[in-house]
Amino acid sequence: MKIETQCLHEGYTPKNGEPRVIPIYQSTTYVYNSTDAVADVFDDPQLGLIYSRFENPTTDAVEKKIAALEGGVAAMCTSSGQAATLLSILNICSAGDHFISSSSIYGGTVNLFAFTLKKMGIECSFIDVDASEEDIKAAIRPNTKCIFGETIANPALTVLDIEKWANAAHSAGIPLIVDNTFATPILCRPIEWGADIVIHSTSKYMDGHAVQVGGVIVDSGKFDWTASGRFPGLTEPDESYHGVVYTEKYSHAPYIIKARHQLMRDFGCYPAANSSFLLNLGLETLAVRMKQYCENALKVAKYLEASDMVESVKYAGLESDPHYQTAKKYLPDGVCGVISFSIKGGRKKAVKFMDSLKLASNEVHVADIRTCVLHPASATHRQLTEEQLEAAGIDAGMIRLSVGLENVDDILADVDQAFKAARD
Ligand SMILES: *Cc1c(COP(=O)(O)O)cnc(C)c1O
Hints:
- By secondary structure, the chain is α/β, with parallel strands linked by helices.
- It has helices at 3-9, 35-43, 57-70, 81-90, 107-119, 133-138, 162-171, 184-187, 225-228, 232-235, 246-249, 254-267, 273-284, 286-306, 324-330, 346-356, 386-391, 408-423, and strands at residues 74-78, 98-102, 123-127, 144-150, 176-179, 197-201, 215-219, 310-314, 338-343, 361-362, 372-374, 398-402.
- Helices cover 41% and strands 13% of the residues.
- The strands form two sheets. It has a seven-stranded mixed sheet, sandwiched between helices. Strands 8-9-12-11-10 form a five-stranded mixed sheet.
- Helix 1 packs antiparallel against helix 3 and helix 3 runs parallel beside helix 13.
- Residues 80-82, 85, 106, 108-109, 150, 154, 179, 181, 201, 203-204, 213, 215 line the site of pyridoxal-5'-phosphate.
- Residues 80-82, 85, 106, 108-109, 150, 154, 179, 181, 201, 203-204, 213, 215 line the site of pyridoxal-5'-phosphate (PLP).
C-alpha cells in the first residue's frame, strides 16, 4: 500500500459484519474464562490483553497504523508527546547513564533533558545540530546510551542530517531516537535513513485538529541490542517481569515490548480509547493535509522573505535557508506548515504584530488545522536561559507561524494587515 492508502487502511480490518470504523473500546479490562487463562496472559502478555493502563484495542489499532506509516515493527501510544520522549529515554537509560541530544529541539524536551532527567541521575550533552560526525562521536562516553534529535526542530526549524547522526550513533553501538513530530511519516520516514526509534507528539499534525494531546513511540526493530552490549535492561532478565529477557523472548521488537510491559505498566501514561479514536480520524487525512500545509506555508514563507518588515525567515523550503539542501534530501515533498521569522524591531514589534492578527489565533499550539501564532521567547521557551535560547536558535523577535489549511490568500491578507498595524 502507498502511504495515503496506509493512512486509511492500516491497523484495522473489519471482518464480516463488523463495524466499518474501529470502535471505541471503553473498557478498563478484559475477561478470561479461567484463572489459568489469566495466568497465561501474565506469563506472556502478547497472548491477550490485560488492563487498559498499558493496552487497549482501539489504541492498538492506532499503534499498528503508526508503526506501518513509519516503517517500524511496533508502536506504543502515550498520553502526551512529553510522555513519549520521557519513556523513549527511560527505556534504555538509568541513573548514572548519559545520552546526547541535538540542541535544536523542542523547549519542553530541553527542560526534560537538562533539568528533570538530571535530577534522576541521567545526564544529557547538547550538541549543535550541524556538528560534524567526528564531533558527535567525540561526545560519546562509555556510559552513553543513545542520541536524540528532531527531524524538523520546533521552533528553530533546522533539519537533522539523520544519516550523519545515525552513523555516529551506530559507530558506538547506540541507537538514534528521532522526534518526527513536524515532518510526520508523510514527509520523512527517519527509519529509512537509519533512525532506530521514532517518537511523535501526536498532538500536532497527526491529530491535526487540536482536539487531543498524545504521543507515540515506534520501534524500527532493527537495532541489535545484544551486539551492542550496552543494554543489560534488554538483554538480561527483568526481575520485575519474572525474569524475562526481552531480546530473547520478544526478539522482533524488544524495545517497545519492554517499554509497554515494564514502563507503561509502572507509569501508566497511556491514552484513553476515546483519544485514540480521535487520533485515528486525524491520521486518516494526514497525507492530504500535509501536502496542503506545505503548499500554503511555502507561499507564506516567500511572502515573508520579500517583506521589508522581516529581519529573517526560517523555513527550509526556501533556497536561502541554510538547511535547504538537507531538506531536499530528507523532505523532498515539503517541509511542513511551520515557519519561524523574526520581525524587525524585536520583542515589541513581534507582540504588536501578533496582537493585530485577526484570522490567525494566538495560542500555545502548533500544527493545527487553523493558522496560529506563538511567541516562543514569552511562551514555550520562557523557562530557557539566554544561552539555551541561543542554542535553540530563538531570538526575542522570533514568531512561530503555523500555517493552516485556510485559503492561502486569506492567510496572506491577515499577515499583511497585521504588518501594516505593526508598522505604525
Ligand atoms: C509539542 C511537542 C512535543 C511535546 O508533545 P506534547 O504532546 O505537547 O506533550 C515534543 N516534541 C515536539 C517536536 C513537539 O512539537
